Amino acid sequence: MTAEYKVLGDIAVITMTNPPVNGLGFSTRIGITDGLSKANADDAVKAIVITGAGKAFSGGADIKEFGTPKALQEPNLLSVILALEASSKPIVAAIHSVCMGGGLELALGCHYRVAAPGTNVALPEVKLGLIPGAGGTQRLPRVIGVETALNMIVSGEPVKSELLASLPGQKLFDKLAASAESVFDEAVAFARSVAGKTGEALPLVRNLPCKHPQGDAYFQFAKNMVGGMSKNYPAPLQCVDAVQAATKMKFDAGMAEERRIFTSLMFTPESLALRHLFMAERAASKIPDVPDDTPKREIKSVGVIGAGTMGGGISMNFLNAGIPVKILEMKQEALDRGIATIKKNYEAQVKKGKLKQDKYEQRMALLSTTLSYDDLKDADLIIEAVFEEIGVKEKVFKELDRVAKKGAILASNTSTLDVDKIASFTERPQDVVGMHFFSPANVMKLLEVVRGKATAKDVLATVMAIGKKIKKTAVVSGVCDGFIGNRMIEQYSRQAGFLLDEGATPQQVDKAIEKFGFAMGPFRMGDLAGNDIGWAIRKRRAVERADMKYSRTADKLCELGRFGQKTGAGWYDYQAGKRDAIPSELVNKMIEDHRKELGITPRKISDEEIVQRLVYALVNEGAHILEDGIASKSGDIDMVYLTGYGFPIYRGGPMHYASQVGLYNVAETMKRFAKNPRDDAEFWQPAPLIQKLVAEGKSFG
Ligand code: NAI
């Protein structure tokens, strides 16, 4: 059992002991009910205190049980709360640190609540595509009012206990303790003050009234607001329905309505996707052969080589986390330009009120520059972000090998070059790793951590931890061309090109995939990032892998100098200073002419085919990436696509999406595409892993 029972004089204390956040798994639930029975049977006990050990009162459901029958095993959370309410002796919740989800619902089932200031209080179920399922939508409005409760339930965001305690007329907390240190003693004292009360004298939240003065009109207003903001997610609107039920129905009927809604949301694609994301995000930091307790190197200062687009953004991440950065460049002018860009970025944040002036100054004070490698001799981590040429990287890494202190981590931000080759330029390949940031590096969440064949385990563990510190989603990739994300996007881009050859227009392709939920279609994306980047890669490919077929349209576009927004024209036309993509007659004519050269009669291509070809191209390459051991789990691939490539969150990433469609269906569709005479039959050969999983009736997991 993960709850302890002890008696302090006339007060019984039940302490949840399920680290890290006292999740309400079966063993905790049974521990609580067991403690309750003991306390109620012991005549010496006059009142009961429930609290959580360590860093939380309770963070809610135990994620290890999520979606498994164990979560429902009796006593489930509803039964535990009923048992609290039925106690003949007063129960006081001693709340501190974290009181969320089921943890808050549990507290609301107690007769009294004493909270420490600074406690994060939330019902975050909506973030998993659900509504609270153990009375949260029925009890919270009764203690803090309908509007505050609805805001909390619809947003899922935490609110500090002292703010809630200051609400006029609130009944959530009977007492705000002086501090987190004193909350337990104050709860015990409070319990003594109510000891001996029993039966009707014990207050229950369920008996409080629940009304909104404007009644249905308020809820109509709330639905309009929430509906407008949550279009691809059903749960937020259902939160409103559940809270409305609290105002219209008797308590038990409202509870039944909450349960009905909760159950109906449990298996929606959106909830499954969000729960997958929740788990995959946590799992991404786990590397199969690098144990959690691997010792980490200390990172107190960082060197960055190159003050260009990436170097500047990378530096900002560390400054934001309070870690000093020294940037090295070849020339003073390049340094000045880089620093000016960093300042401009921060100043824009200050202007928008997102950053305080003193914070900005503190961050800038952590930044220094140099033109000499010798000045990097004390850096614990050095990240290279110079031109993408192996010769330049060689020079830089040889210099770093010369000056860096023993044990310093040497990282490259290369997006296409071989990290093992880069490591070989040094005498310490074990200290070399790839840290592939995405542009703009101070904004994008994704960090691909590229593990070379010699990269030491403690280097990996350190880089994953530092990724977390700078608030990135770090995902480990093996060494291969393009790593996880770009290797997959290449296949997606190839399909986008073939679709043009066969009869689609750039705007049709973009619209179809944007309707599916991508932030931006491939052609608008190309115009934003610069079509010349892909052009350079294709030229390299033409030498390395002449067998790989491409549509020539993108090359033709670049031959016209249409690199995208930066040249004022790409797949679309752009008006000066604006970013709106205007369909281009010239480009559409170019595509038609190219079809004629190829002897292709254009056909009407459905949006469904467009989406399937683009997404399944990602899925098939993702499966190859798993087979090759470049990614260790499919959830890592999903994290890359959700955080770095604009894949719709509510679809859970390409691999999760394919599993939801069913791998059998995905494979059959691929086989159908393989028969398309214009297409590359080899392209649509389902990866062996997909075939194996189909044969075993399994999915990616
Ligand atoms: P950039 O051209 O904006 O900046 C490169 C900077 O490195 C320039 O300021 C240059 O003066 C400096 N530099 C060149 N050689 C140097 C040397 N030997 N010593 C010191 N400084 C030197 O390039 P960008 O876009 O920042 O790219 C840098 C690296 O990041 C490349 O490896 C690139 O592949 C990678 N990358 C770029 C992404 C992007 O979207 N731009 C995304 C992810 C990775």
UniProtKB/TrEMBL annotation:
Cell compartments where the protein resides: Peroxisome
Q: Which organism is it from?
A: Variovorax guangxiensis
* Example GO BP: fatty acid beta-oxidation
Could you list the residue ranges forming a coiled coil in this record?
none
Reaction(s) this enzyme catalyzes, per UniProt: a (3S)-3-hydroxyacyl-CoA + NAD(+) = a 3-oxoacyl-CoA + NADH + H(+)
| Domain of life from the UniProt record | Bacteria
Question: Per its UniProt record, what InterPro entries does this chain match?
Answer: 3-OHacyl-CoA_DH_NAD-bd, 3HC_DH_C, 6-PGluconate_DH-like_C_sf, ClpP/crotonase-like_dom_sf, Enoyl-CoA_hydra/iso, NAD(P)-bd_dom_sf
State the protein's name: 3-hydroxyacyl-CoA dehydrogenase
Among SUPFAM superfamilies, the record links this protein to: 6-phosphogluconate dehydrogenase C-terminal domain-like, ClpP/crotonase, NAD(P)-binding Rossmann-fold domains
Keyword list (alphabetical) reads: Fatty acid metabolism, Isomerase, Lipid degradation, Lipid metabolism, Lyase, Multifunctional enzyme, NAD, Oxidoreductase, Peroxisome
Sequence ranges assigned to domain 3-hydroxyacyl-CoA dehydrogenase NAD binding in this UniProt record: 302-477
